[in-house]
Write a structure and sequence with these properties.
single chain, 452 residues, alpha/beta, Conserved hypothetical protein from pyrococcus furiosus pfu- 392566-001, ParB domain, Rossmann fold, 3 domains, ten-stranded mixed sheet, 15 helices
């Protein structure tokens, strides 16, 4: 074998295994700037192309007169096909290897030309490296950020794509900002945020209620406890958006939580007040019976009766046995290749005694969820839906309580409608997002819209 420059026009292409050349832009820019690094392969005498069709095409497009070629004297037809196959099956750089290589090139160029300094002419910056490599300045900036992040968080290199890694990087930045905001709040004595008509608390709901809320001081409870349907696993494995769920959603954990918190919720709720509780439909009978302190028994004749579940229990709610229904604009995530995607959520309407609704309404609520891009929590409820519940079951200046606040939508709805509110969120990450979202919400504008 020998290598020499040969006239482009002398190359005989013939039939090729590769039919789609793909995007040649980057390769063409590289050849224009650096020349052909790897020679094409041709047959001695006939100049028939064996391998390097993409490089040949780029050189021809660039109007090169010659191209470096490696000559082969004798190859069987099988050997020619194998050579072409081997060249087109070479292992490409991983996204991280490519980012690291671009980062090293950027560093070398800065060492050679000097770093660019803002406000001064000259020097080498990311724009110059982007131009040199024929990519966008955003690509270079991303590469540098990812490589620097990998030094302190090596697991980022395990993502299968650069897109996933960038998403993780953005998440880290978001959490760093939120954590810094929380640190400043803590310095001001705010592990619990009190701002005007609402109080936000990060911690265990049961403990907070026991330690801080007196008997019969809450006018309305709205909450969405874990449903016990393993949504924390389904959301990450089969979710349409792969959203992270902030809590353990196993059946055992969810029922245990309800058994601990429900006596406290009954204690702090005023007499003749309402409670709205989102549930998974498969546990409808279980929750109704539990809240009403009933157990179902089948008599010898096959008829059904209800008896007291726990004679020693001192609390019970009245529960509407037919749940309210919230119909959403689209189906939720599930194992959607085999199962229907639920487009609704059931809500138990409970009361401690008897209280009239403030106005007549039916039991089906058609309300859109926030847009995907606007949600800060995977199970974020409709603001309009929560506003409806608050208007139906409370009056201005009364206290609305959400012991598992998630996105904090109950707080926003309560504030817009002129109520006070208390919200608790156990997850630190969810609490930080909630606090930030509530602080940034244009309450006054929403109040104006609410009044019109």
């Amino acid at each position: 074998m020998n290598i020499q420059e040969v006239p482009i026009e002398s190359i005989v292409v013939g039939d090729r295994a590769r039919e789609e050349l793909g995007d040649l832009e980057q390769l063409q820019k590289s050849i224009k700037r650096l020349g052909v690094i790897n020679p094409i392969c041709i047959m001695e005498g006939t100049y028939k192309l064996v391998a390097g069709f993409r490089r040949y095409t780029c050189c021809k497009t660039l109007s090169f007169k010659t191209i470096p070629a490696r000559f082969y004297e004798e190859l069987s037809e099988v050997e020619k096909e194998i050579l072409e196959l081997e060249e087109n099956l070479h292992k490409e750089l991983t996204w991280y290897e490519q980012s690291k290589l671009r980062g090293r090139i950027h560093t070398h160029l800065q060492e050679e030309h000097g770093k660019a300094v803002k406000g001064h002419k000259g020097g080498w910056g990311t724009q110059e490296t982007a131009d040199y490599l024929g990519v966008s300045v955003g690509t270079i900036s991303q590469d540098i950020s990812l490589v620097e992040t990998a030094k302190i968080a090596p697991k980022i290199t395990e993502f299968t794509s650069k897109k996933q890694a960038l998403k993780s990087l953005n998440k880290m930045r978001e959490m760093a900002i939120l954590t810094e905001m929380a640190r400043r709040d803590t310095e001001e004595g705010l592990d619990q945020t009190k701002s005007g008509p609402y109080t936000l608390y990060n911690g265990d709901a049961v403990k907070f209620i026991k330690d801080n809320i007196e008997d019969e001081t809450i006018d309305l409870i709205i909450f969405d406890p874990p449903w016990g349907i393993d949504v924390d696993k389904k959301g990450s494995s089969r979710g349409l958006r792969g959203e992270k769920v902030f809590y353990d959603d196993s059946e055992l954990t969810s029922k245990d939580l309800i058994s601990q918190i429900m006596p406290e919720l009954h204690r702090v709720l005023k007499a003749n007040a309402h409670m709205y509780m989102f549930i998974g439909i498969q546990y409808l009978s279980y929750y109704i019976n539990y809240l009403m302190n009933l157990r179902q028994v089948i008599n010898d004749d096959g008829t059904t009766d209800f008896k007291t579940l726990d004679p020693n229990r001192k609390w019970r709610f009245d529960v509407r046995t037919i749940p309210l229904i919230w119909i959403k604009e689209g189906g939720g995530y599930t194992d959607f290749e085999y199962k229907f995607m639920p487009k609704y959520e059931p809500i138990l309407f409970c009361s401690k005694g008897t209280r009239r609704l403030n106005y007549p309404t039916d039991d089906v609520f058609n309300k859109r969820r926030p847009l995907t891009t606007e949600r800060i929590h995977p199970q974020q409820k409709s603001l309009e839906l929560i506003k409806d519940f608050i208007k139906l079951s409370s009056h201005e200046n009364e206290i609305v309580f959400d012991p598992m606040a998630g996105s904090g939508v109950t707080v926003v709805a309560a504030t817009i409608t002129g109520r006070r509110s208390i919200a608790i969120e156990k997850s630190k990450e969810a609490f930080l997002k909630m606090s930030n979202w509530i602080k940034g919400f244009d309450i006054e504008k929403e109040k104006e819209d609410n009044e019109t």
